[in-house]
Design a protein that fits this description.
about 300 residues, 2 domains, binds NADP nicotinamide-adenine-dinucleotide phosphate, alpha/beta, 10 helices, Quinone Oxidoreductase, Chain A, domain 1, 6-stranded parallel β-sheet, Rossmann fold, 7-stranded mixed β-sheet, 16 strands
Length: about 300
């Protein structure tokens, strides 16, 4: 049997249930991971609350969570890239669990020197940063990039990835996070509460919008003609895009083992480090979700799995 954290109904964090479930078996092309740590993302509390449009009542019950790190303890037929005992991390469905089964193509080896908690902090958030900046944003060395929400799970990775790719990095964040973000490589930190980024940023080649709403709307004022505006939350206006001859995208992060390997290489080269703000044992997942939802978390909240 395997301990899991599941929901049978939508609601506040008290709908999370700790349940023993049969340990899943890997099918063709899959591996099973004995989870050492799992991380918490905003999509988890949005799903739990019933406000994430891709998970409806017909999908319940749902095992929470999308990030794990741990050891492969069973390998399905047709898997050649991994063997039992390999230390891996992956973006998954159902990560708040002792065991999870995942396609071997979505898995990568944990970079040397990272704890399970640090490794589990990476997949969904760093893949979002990578895909937003590179796949959708077409980031190139020398560009000026503005990352809205730099101190959060996605933002703190986006700053480091953009920097490693040779960009000049500007970011919006709370004033208290400025020195933390400069240490991660941000060239300019703009206090979103007391400063207007339109007055501070100059002309920007690529905006990565992790906030949406008026922050996205106001971003047109700083975007260079021919630039790119990429959001994790809402589709940018097509009309404004035409006016600015801009590339725009709203996207949903996809699991990708090859990109996780590339992200791992940045870790190994000392160009990227996951920041774990706080850890909670798996059984306290409700508290961990409440902590993230309350805001002002620097980096990531992680669940440790015994
Ligand atoms: N489409 C996708 O595939 C995808 C993937 C990942 C994430 N997302 C979404 O993207 C968003 C960011 O995710 P995350 O994991 O980075 O969330 P997070 O860890 O909660 O971080 C959000 C950050 O935004 C900051 N912030 C809040 N209001 C701001 C403002 N007006 N201007 C600048 N910064 C502001 C917060 O700082 P303070 O604490 O100072 O307020 C916090 O550091 C979430 O809504 C998430 O659901 C979507």
């Amino acid at each position: 049997m395997s301990t899991t954290i599941r929901i049978h109904e939508f609601g506040a964090s008290d709908v999370l249930r700790t349940e023993d479930r049969p340990t899943p078996e890997p099918n063709f092309g899959e591996v099973r991971i004995r989870v050492g740590a799992a991380s918490v993302n905003p999509v988890d509390f949005k799903t739990r609350a019933g406000s994430y449009p891709r998970v409806g009542a017909d999908d319940l019950p749902v095992t929470m969570g999308h990030d794990v790190a741990g050891l492969i303890d069973a390998v399905g037929e047709g898997v050649e890239s991994f063997t039992r005992g390999a230390r891996v991390y992956a973006m998954v469905d159902g990560g708040y669990a002792q065991h999870v089964v995942v396609s071997s193509g979505d898995v990568a080896a944990v970079p040397e020197g990272l704890s399970d908690a640090e490794a589990a902090a990476i997949p969904l958030a760093a893949l979002t940063a990578w895909q937003g900046l590179i796949d959708h944003g077409g980031l190139e060395a020398g560009q000026r990039v503005l990352i809205h929400g730099g101190a959060g799970g996605v933002g703190h990775f986006a700053i480091q990835i953009a920097k490693a790719r040779g960009a000049e990095v500007l970011t919006t964040a709370s004033a208290g996070d400025a020195s933390f973000l400069r240490e991660l490589g941000a060239d300019t930190v703009i206090d979103y509460k007391d400063q207007r980024f339109e007055d501070e940023a100059g002309e920007i080649d690529l905006v990565l919008d992790l906030i949406g709403g008026e922050t996205q709307e106001r971003s047109w004022a700083v975007l260079k003609s021919g630039g790119a505006l990429v959001s994790t939350l809402q589709a940018p206006s097509e009309e404004k895009a035409r006016e600015k001859d801009a590339r725009v995208a709203v996207f949903l992060v996809e699991p990708d083992g090859t990109q996780l390997e590339e992200i791992g290489r940045l870790v190994t080269r000392g160009q990227l480090r996951p920041v774990v703000a706080e850890t909670f044992p798996l059984e306290r997942a409700a508290e961990a979700q409440d902590r993230l939802e309350a805001g002002h978390v620097r980096g990531k909240i992680v669940l440790t799995v015994a």
